[in-house]
Design brief:
globular, 18% strand, alpha/beta
Length: 188
């Protein structure tokens, strides 16, 4: 249940579509509420397992951790944020003891390779700034490992700028293992 937030109709429609239809790339302009949509999806998916919320920078990771606590009314010990400032020896404890892990992809990718995190218990992985899921960027191996470890892998990509070509959008979809796109513009 959301706290102190009244989602807009389009946010509810997108979140419901994601929950009904599975792994999705959500494309919305900046400041149109991608985090609120993510929170609505997280709220339902927490019943099935843990959630991993990836973002490319430490400030974004911290912002998402704070937003999830506030929007979902969660306690301090239910959400953590993992960045390079937390030693690998401590990160395993954090993964084990929190419902929602907000993290940089570099930390998660390193921790997968070092056997510190097991993605099989995660019901949802969110890729914020999903347009980065190309080439050698850490989103790609994380998505592949998540799909390998979890037969029910459910991914949500969030971006304001997926690129203008179908080839680029399809590359992002393939790289984070989503099969559909929900897109809105400010005009919508």
């Amino acid at each position: 249940m959301l706290h102190d937030i009244v989602p807009r109709d389009y946010q509810c429609n997108i979140a419901n579509s994601v929950l009904e239809n599975g792994s999705t790339l959500v494309v919305l302009p900046t400041a149109m509420g991608k985090t609120v949509i993510a929170a609505m999806v997280v709220d339902k998916m927490l019943k099935k397992g843990k959630v991993l919320f990836l973002a490319p920078t430490r400030p974004l990771v911290e912002q998402h951790a704070k937003s999830m606590k506030k929007i979902l009314g969660l306690k301090e010990d239910e959400v953590c944020h993992i960045t390079g400032f937390i030693l690998p020896e401590k990160r395993g404890e954090e993964y084990a003891s929190h419902k929602i892990v907000c993290a940089t992809p570099q930390c998660i990718n390193n921790d997968i390779q070092n056997g510190i995190i097991d993605l099989s218990g995660y019901a949802l992985v969110i890729f914020d700034e999903a347009h980065r899921a190309a080439g050698e960027y850490a989103y790609v191996p994380i998505a592949n490992e998540y799909a390998n470890q979890n037969p029910d892998a459910f991914t949500l990509g969030l971006t304001a700028s997926p690129g203008s070509s179908k080839v680029k959008i399809n590359q992002i979809k393939n790289n984070i293992h989503v099969n559909r796109v929900e897109s809105r513009t400010e005009v919508d």
